[in-house]
Design brief:
26 helices; single chain; five-stranded antiparallel sheet; four-stranded antiparallel sheet; alpha+beta
């Protein structure tokens, strides 16, 4: 390999979108590394480093070869036995091949294989200089960036996420001469827009990062994030409170600044009468400010802004931050005060004028359906049905309030506050907020039982309704977030311990839908005519489809918890009607798998399943009886297995009723010895039909005892 030097590629731009910056940078790094790798350029790609700021995308690789390695090329020509004429002279095909290779026939070599001999042309192509390849590599990487709407500027043909202004490509201390998007590469970078506006001379690739730091630019994203944390902590000390800086806000602030400096600010205490979520939403989402809380977790009048400059007059920046937040808070206080004048329940009538989905009616229609499902569900799990239906009737009302109209992300949260203000029971008020949980990956389910019941009813109606009208997810498209709804439903049932038949829930939800909605989802056939509509058949098909959809989400849920596909499939095979029961069985299967007897018994169950399936295929399902007659036993091993099965069944009766599946499988694991002895000493397919049928019935009983929990054979 040729000598290696460090490589720096920096593209300077106008301010890049902060939420897309990390993704753009990662794609740029990947594109550069792929381009080098594709061209066979030796480089320590695992040490490649990405640097991004609001005004630049940069890649640094500590060792990149100066040139590609030599490439050995081989072209196969015509077969030897067909390339020469009868006089031993080269034929047209051979002459043409030699000419295309730029050599004479005598310069060609022969390749001997077990299938014959061929003329071949072999040569060594010298590797290109990497400097000559880099402009093309950079151009390819930029074209591969995920940019939904590229921007054009001036009269150029090219486009990018933002206008570009400078390009630095250095291989060691050498400038890589080239042009990308109209920019000629050089060694002149740029520092902070305000604190170091003059050009920055970069001596070589290794000194670029320090040169940026000297020019008041922290190019390393990790270093910049840490500075944001440190600065926010420093400013928070001045307030005496505790800042709330989550990862999402931290990332966005870091992607908005090149030299972050935190400034402690404050607003009028009168705004604290507004629900804190509204104020925090304004600070974090709209202004990128960091809220400050007291020792008891209550929001204070302090907040922290992070400037992109080390100002000589920080007080002026503070005044600006305080001035910009004041009207937003004033609006929030106005919305809050005005909304309190209108009882939450008074919005119910107006819900009739808000369309939920054309075939499914208005938000009022949805609320009525959800209330009925909540009543049914609450009665089944021992929750106050009156509170559940009251919560369902109020759950959509806050969507019509001024506050939620301005801050849609506060739906549910504001419903809780308005319900509390009107002295609704705490369980009802809290349910209006927790019905939306889990809101995102990693979020908890609703804490209260009324909230859990409402969350189940809401998601069951949404899934049943949208599936019924034929708008189920397709590929990456899921406009109604049905995958999230299905996972939220499964998690609420399992983690909330709501022992319900999930198929029955869908049956009831579909019964509440108008037949017109069920018919709307039927697609015409190839002849353009809609098939005959039968509401009952349509509901049955939808129930099975919905159940499969939920169970598929459950597969991912358990995969994240490190359950194996085999463990999941073992339980799925016995189709428990309750997801709580599914969870109990799955965890019991995991415990069973840790036992030393598990592998042997799983293998035996698989053997039993194969024997019984073959019998059914050849002689029909009725050929395997349920009755085991001791009079037809011929071997001690089958008597011992029958007695062991009978004892295990008797012992497990109570555990099965308690759903203590771990205990059941632990008891069944004691069958290993008699099962192994049976297969070692007994021929199932005996010549005597009565003996053979009796042995098949015995194996059927063995399989039934295990599949009462899960299909152990799948392990």
């Amino acid at each position: 390999m040729s000598a290696a030097k460090s490589l720096l590629i920096e593209l300077g731009t106008e301010e890049l979108p902060p939420k897309a910056l990390d993704e753009l940078g990662a794609a740029f790094l990947r594109g550069i590394c792929d381009g080098l790798s594709k061209r066979g350029v030796g480089a320590s790609l695992e040490q490649a480093k990405l640097y991004v700021t609001p005004r630049r995308l940069a890649v640094y690789i500590p060792e990149v070869a100066v040139a590609q390695p030599e490439q050995s090329l081989e072209r196969r020509g015509p077969a030897v036995n067909a390339a020469m004429d009868a006089d031993g002279n080269p034929g047209k095909a051979l002459l043409g091949f030699a000419q295309s290779c730029g050599v004479s026939v005598e310069q060609l070599e022969k390749l001997e294989t077990d299938k014959g001999a061929w003329f071949v042309f072999r040569t060594v192509k010298p590797g290109q200089a990497v400097a000559a390849l880099l402009p093309e590599i950079v151009d390819e990487a930029l074209k591969g960036l995920p940019i939904p709407k590229p921007m054009r500027w001036a009269d150029h043909d090219y486009a990018f996420v933002r206008p570009v202004h400078w390009l630095v490509i250095l291989h060691g201390s050498n400038i890589v001469d080239g042009e990308v998007m109209g920019l000629r590469s050089g060694r002149q970078s740029r520092g902070h827009r305000f604190m170091h506006p003059q050009p920055v001379h970069v001596a070589d690739a290794d000194s670029w990062l320090d040169a940026m730091r000297m020019a008041k630019v922290l190019a390393d994203p990790a270093e910049r994030r840490q500075r944001v944390r440190d600065e926010v902590a420093r400013a928070a000390k001045q307030t005496g409170g505790t800042p709330r800086l989550d990862d999402a806000l931290l990332d966005e602030i870091a992607n908005l600044t090149e030299w972050p400096v935190a400034i402690a600010c404050a607003f009028e205490r009168e705004f604290l009468s507004v629900p804190p979520e509204a104020l925090v939403t304004t600070m974090e989402a709209n202004q990128k400010f960091v809220p400050v809380f007291d020792a008891h977790g209550a929001l204070t009048e302090h907040f922290i802004g992070v400037a992109n400059i080390e100002s000589k007059q920080p007080g002026e920046i503070r005044k600006g931050y305080e001035r910009v937040i004041r009207p937003r808070f004033a609006d929030a206080k106005f919305f809050w005060d005005e909304d309190l004048k209108t009882p939450l329940a008074s919005y119910q009538e107006a819900l009739k004028n808000v369309t939920y989905q054309q075939a499914l009616g208005s938000l009022w229609d949805k609320s009525v359906r959800v209330a009925e499902l909540a009543r049914i569900t609450a009665n089944r799990v021992g929750v106050d049905a009156g509170q559940a239906t009251r919560a369902a009737s109020l759950a959509k009302c806050d969507l019509l309030t001024r506050m939620v109209g301005e801050f849609p992300e506060l739906q549910g949260v504001m419903g809780r506050y308005y319900a509390q203000h009107e002295h609704e029971p705490a369980e009802v008020a809290n349910a209006l907020d927790s019905v939306y949980q889990p809101r995102f990956a990693g979020d908890t389910i609703a804490a209260g039982k009324v909230g859990q019941v409402l969350a189940v009813a809401e998601r069951v109606d949404t899934l049943a309704g949208i599936f019924a009208v034929g708008l189920k997810p397709s590929g990456n498209k899921d406009p109604f977030a049905l995958r999230r709804a299905a996972l939220g439903l499964a998690r609420t049932l399992i983690e909330g311990g709501l022992d319900l038949d999930h198929k029955a829930l869908f049956v009831e939800a579909l019964e509440l839908l108008p037949e017109a909605a069920l018919a709307a989802g039927i697609k015409p056939g190839k002849d353009g005519k809609a098939p005959a509509f039968d509401a009952g058949q349509r509901r049955t098909a939808l129930v099975n489809e919905l159940s499969e959809f939920v169970l598929e989400r459950l597969r991912g849920y358990y995969a994240e918890q490190r359950f194996t596909t085999e463990q999941y499939e073992a339980v799925l095979a016995v189709a428990p009607i309750s997801l709580v029961d599914f969870d109990h069985r799955l965890r019991a299967v995991v415990e069973f798998g840790r036992r030393p007897e598990a592998a042997s018994l799983a293998g035996a169950n698989k053997r039993v399943a194969n024997i019984l399936r073959k019998q059914q295929e050849e002689h029909g399902a009725q050929s395997i009886g349920n009755h085991v007659d001791p009079a037809h036993f011929e071997a001690d091993a089958e008597r011992a297995l029958a007695q062991a099965l009978e004892a295990a069944q008797a012992d497990n009766m109570g555990a099965l009723q308690r759903r203590d599946y771990t205990a059941v499988l632990a008891r069944l694991s004691q069958l290993q010895a008699p099962v192994d002895a049976f297969f070692d000493n007994v021929l199932v397919n005996a010549d005597n039909p009565a003996v053979r049928a009796n042995r098949l019935a015995l194996l059927g009983r063995l399989k039934a005892q295990f599949t009462a929990i899960a299909d152990i054979a799948r392990l």
